[in-house]
Amino acid sequence: MRRWLPFVVFLALAGLLYAGIRLSEQRDPNAIPSPLVGKPAPGFSLPDFRDPQRLVSNEDLRGQPYLLNVWGSWCPACRLEHPIITEMAERGIVRVIGYNYKDEPEEAARWLRQFGDPYETIIVDADGRRAIDWGIYGAPESFLVDAQGIVLYKHVGPVTWDTVREEIIPRLEGARR
């Protein structure tokens, strides 16, 4: 029996590893739980990218649902999602608000000229301090917020059409009921 003990332990560990892998495959790797979901969006007052003297607050954005899209010119993955964000805005799926995160204004402007500007409004968090309240730790990230300012969903990583169809549109439809 002593000779079989290492083999039995190995099989038990292999079984646990296999079960863990199977369970993780069933979860969306981009679905990072956010304590904000179901709660009011954090308050902020940040400069408007197009008019830095004007401050935009979370109260200014209420009245219609919006997707707060965190991006930066330094972010390669933001380029991947940008055509989808642009088409969402063009098709009127949801208002898209840009959250320019830790970026140089000249670089952000160049990036928007190169790839297009789908944003209704762009708020600027140059030093990243307000991002802490949102739980933002990188880009791209997106938050779906309802008309009353309640966070409905958080997505980490590039938004895909699967994300739009399976996560964003159903939550928008649920919020309109």
From TrEMBL:
What PROSITE patterns does its record include? THIOREDOXIN_1, THIOREDOXIN_2
Question: Disulfide bond as a keyword?
Answer: yes
Query: Which keywords annotate this record?
Result: Cytochrome c-type biogenesis, Disulfide bond, Redox-active center
Q: Which residues form the Thioredoxin domain?
A: 35-174
**UniProt signal peptide:** none
Kindly give the membrane topology term recorded for this protein: Single-pass membrane protein
Q: What is this protein called?
A: DsbE family thiol:disulfide interchange protein
Subcellular location per the Swiss-Prot or TrEMBL entry:
Cell inner membrane
Tell me where it mainly resides.
membrane
Q: Which family does the similarity line name?
A: Belongs to the thioredoxin family. DsbE subfamily.
Q: Which InterPro entries match?
A: Periplasmic_diS_OxRdtase_DsbE (IPR004799), Redoxin (IPR013740), Thioredoxin-like_sf (IPR036249), Thioredoxin_CS (IPR017937), Thioredoxin_domain (IPR013766), Thioredoxin_ResA/DsbE_sf (IPR050553)
| Organism of provenance | Pseudomarimonas salicorniae
Q: Which residues form a coiled coil?
A: none
